[in-house]
């Protein structure tokens, strides 16, 4: 029977896999056009991290305006993108750290610290965007922050969780490396009645 707890050597690839999942969600957030969308028909507004597109209810083509013309648009895109780049670096470092047979636990804690920096950058970008967007862009109809924006927050939540685990992993160094011998509790049949 294979038992795999939170901190065991066989399960060391769970944290890099979670970071990979955060990267995939970050790519979807960066490339997705669903940061802001019209809530109901007629669909007259959609926006990404990079641009805001509108159309009249009877038109087929979207008229897009770059958000990079606004200071807050550049700030939101830059902070989220910097966080994403650091996340990719952390993923590469995690793969290297867990590939080495002799795991360097101070190195792992450093990755956790970098992941907190990633979360800070991403949160800044994710907060700047809706606040300034609703102030500076004329919204038509009912709008909602949609699926791509949600993927940005999901990536950030996974990064925060991984950061805690990377920082706390050195506390379980012996368990991860398998240096602790199991404890067995045994009582002989003659002594069993006295234990009850």
From TrEMBL:
Native organism: Rissa tridactyla
Main location: other
Residues passing through the membrane, by range: 12-32, 77-98, 110-131, 151-172
Subcellular location: Cell junction, Desmosome; Cell membrane; Cytoplasm
Family membership noted in the UniProt record: Belongs to the TMEM47 family.
UniProt cross-references to PANTHER family, sorted A to Z: P53 APOPTOSIS EFFECTOR RELATED TO PMP-22, P53-INDUCED PROTEIN RELATED
Pfam family, one: PMP22_Claudin
Keyword flag Membrane: yes
Alphabetical list of InterPro entries matching this protein: P53_induced (IPR015664), PMP22/EMP/MP20/Claudin (IPR004031)
Protein name per Swiss-Prot or TrEMBL: p53 apoptosis effector related to PMP-22
Topology relative to the membrane: Multi-pass membrane protein
GO cellular component: cytoplasm; desmosome; plasma membrane
Domain of life: Eukaryota
GO BP term (any one): cell-cell adhesion
Keyword set, alphabetical order: Apoptosis, Cell adhesion, Cell junction, Cell membrane, Cytoplasm, Membrane, Transmembrane, Transmembrane helix
């Amino acid at each position: 029977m294979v038992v795999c707890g939170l901190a065991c050597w066989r399960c060391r690839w769970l944290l890099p896999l979670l970071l990979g999942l955060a990267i995939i969600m970050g790519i979807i957030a960066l490339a997705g056009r669903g940061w802001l969308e019209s809530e109901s028909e007629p669909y007259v507004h959609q926006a990404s991290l990079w641009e805001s597109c509108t159309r009249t209810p009877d038109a087929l083509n979207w008229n897009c305006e770059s958000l990079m013309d606004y200071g807050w648009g550049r700030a939101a895109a830059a902070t989220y993108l910097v966080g994403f780049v650091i996340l990719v670096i952390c993923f590469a470092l995690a793969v290297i750290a867990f590939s080495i047979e002799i795991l360097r636990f101070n190195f792992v804690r450093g990755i956790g610290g970098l992941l907190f920096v990633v979360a800070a950058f991403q949160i800044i970008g994710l907060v700047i965007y809706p606040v300034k967007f609703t102030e500076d862009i004329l919204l038509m109809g009912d709008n909602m922050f949609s699926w791509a924006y949600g993927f940005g927050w999901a990536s950030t939540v996974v990064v925060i969780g991984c950061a805690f685990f990377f920082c706390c992993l050195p506390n379980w160094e012996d368990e991860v490396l398998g240096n602790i011998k199991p404890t067995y509790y045994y009582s002989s049949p003659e002594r069993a009645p006295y234990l009850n």
